[in-house]
């Protein structure tokens, strides 16, 4: 089986842990959104260049989920690539089964355990603390239109579609725009001023084209905008440096592969 190359990189917000005395903080994952079967089917259709039609995939998955539901109701445990679902009974047992109140003390439920595949995918996670009070721009998703990947690659000369918040390039500061940074040094490799960004620019999305001569390597993005929650832009732009590492070109072979 091919090695899974993606790595967990999640934003977290810290909250006080009220069940214990002291200053312990509890991290909570910041969700980028919620996907359903329809969304996943559309992503598969796009990634497969239309080989797997979304409508067909969605129909099959929904039928499969119906079969899975019936199996769980019948008392079967399910092993899937996402994990193991096991029927369980909640509550303490009361022998007076004729009494509806006694029967109501028990509920049918499920326990869940991560699959081996997911455990490996979740190894060595990287978490970034996000400030919930941040007033400036923020990037949720970076889509490379040429490769169809999200938060992974950049294609020289191709278009990039950003999703986030407070990305609108209102205001008049010359510092507004998107910056392409060296992933290690954060040196600015290329600046995309606000005037060069696509007409699809809104509060929640940005669209721009990469230089054709962009060298192989790893990069990150930064966004500077004067957009805020009020109609009037900020006097000075706020800059957000995104943590996601994006690769141009092929990833260098690992040492053991190189020896072979």
From TrEMBL:
Identify the Pfam families for this entry.
DUF4469
The family database entries (Gene3D superfamilies) matched by this protein are listed as:
2.70.50.70
Please report the stretch or stretches of sequence annotated as the DUF4469 domain: 139-238
Superkingdom of the source species: Bacteria
Provide the protein name: DUF4469 domain-containing protein
């Amino acid at each position: 089986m091919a090695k899974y190359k993606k790595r967990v990189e999640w934003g977290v917000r810290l909250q006080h842990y009220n069940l214990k005395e002291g200053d312990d903080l509890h991290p909570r994952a910041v969700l980028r959104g919620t996907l359903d079967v329809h969304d996943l089917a559309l992503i598969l259709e796009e990634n497969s260049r239309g080989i797997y039609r979304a409508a067909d995939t969605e129909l099959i998955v929904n039928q499969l989920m119906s079969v899975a539901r019936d199996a769980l109701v019948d008392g079967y445990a399910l092993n899937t690539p996402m994990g193991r679902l096991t029927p369980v009974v909640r509550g303490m047992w009361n022998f007076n089964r004729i009494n509806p109140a006694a029967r109501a003390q028990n509920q049918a439920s499920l326990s869940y355990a991560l699959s081996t595949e997911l455990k490996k995918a979740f190894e060595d996670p990287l978490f970034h603390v996000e400030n919930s009070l941040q007033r400036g721009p923020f990037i949720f998703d970076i889509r490379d239109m040429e490769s169809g990947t999200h938060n992974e690659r950049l294609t020289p000369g191709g278009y990039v579609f950003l999703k986030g918040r407070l990305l609108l390039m209102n205001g008049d500061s010359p510092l507004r725009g998107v910056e392409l940074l060296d992933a290690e040094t954060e040196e600015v490799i290329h600046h995309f001023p606000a005037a060069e960004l696509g007409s699809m620019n809104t509060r929640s999305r940005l669209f721009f084209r990469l230089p054709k001569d962009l060298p192989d390597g790893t990069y990150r993005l930064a966004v500077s905008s004067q957009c805020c929650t009020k109609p009037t832009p900020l006097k000075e732009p706020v800059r957000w440096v995104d943590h996601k590492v994006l690769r141009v070109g092929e990833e260098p072979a690992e040492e053991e592969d190189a020896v072979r």
